Amino acid sequence: VEEVATAISAAGERAAGSDKTFLSVFMQSGGAPAELRAGLVTVPTYAFPEPAARALAAAVRYGEWLAKPESSAPTFTDVDASAAESVIAAAMDRVGDDGGWLEPDEVEEVLASFGLSLPMARTVTTEDDAVAAAAEMPGAAVLKVISPSALHKSDVGGLVLDVEGEEAVRQAFKQVMGAVPDPEGVLVQEFVAGGHEVLIGMTEDPNFGPLIVFGLGGVYVELIGDVAFRIHPLTELDVVEMMAEPKSAKLLDGYRGGDPGDTAAVRDALLRVSAMIEALPEIVEMDMNPVKVARPGHGIRVVDARIRVRPVVGSFVPSRRDIPADL
Fold first, then answer.
1. Contact 272, 227 (CB under 8 A)
2. Which of 153, 182, 133, 176 is nearest to 306 (CA)?
């Protein structure tokens, strides 16, 4: 054992200053041989191979992280943060100190203030108003119930897609209003056909602050869980990496002859969401699902979105502080 340890130590000394990484495993009750600490180079040693492999993998990941090019978060000149702040300030009077979810028209205003495109929509409370609103749409319509209890409208029958014609609109209105015990109205929205469905969202983590999520969208997002997270704020490099991480990312590249998606527009949307979170610390949760991704050059449309806010006391929000940037 001593001879082996001496040989390892000598090899470590010869490789000092190179890019070689040394570690050793000595599966013996006596612990690491003293020879590993006697020379000019101390060789890390482990009692079992498994922790040695994990340590080496961590060192490799850290080296890869150090080798990454520096990146930064872009500044958008076309956003209207003050308009979004006004919407949220008005909503605070309604939701109170415990916070709550923004209304659909408030969500639309906040997202539009940061350059995120939504389909044409109107909120109605009667069948006749629903028929009139659907007639204003450029094509078919979607009817969604507005209800505090319907977080996932499709699960309870509170969503009807691709509705055309007066009678179909009236039937869809009755269906979604009767799907929940506490309907407050119906959102009549332009139907967006085709495209890939992705999820873009955000949640407030008690340890890391805002986390931004991207992945496969639609009704199966919770079942499949094919998503990637990054800590806010996002840089351009963060966005590139998180978009490549989910297995479903290949769909946006035109998997097996399928239509590719506008990945540039998705990258832009993720960066705009990060800018929104930076400007609006009242936002504690956001879910944009689905986001329809059209063909390259045709952008994205946020088909459905929810935003939850809560009051911020004072101007300093510890979870939003970029500590590394302050060092």
1. no
2. 153
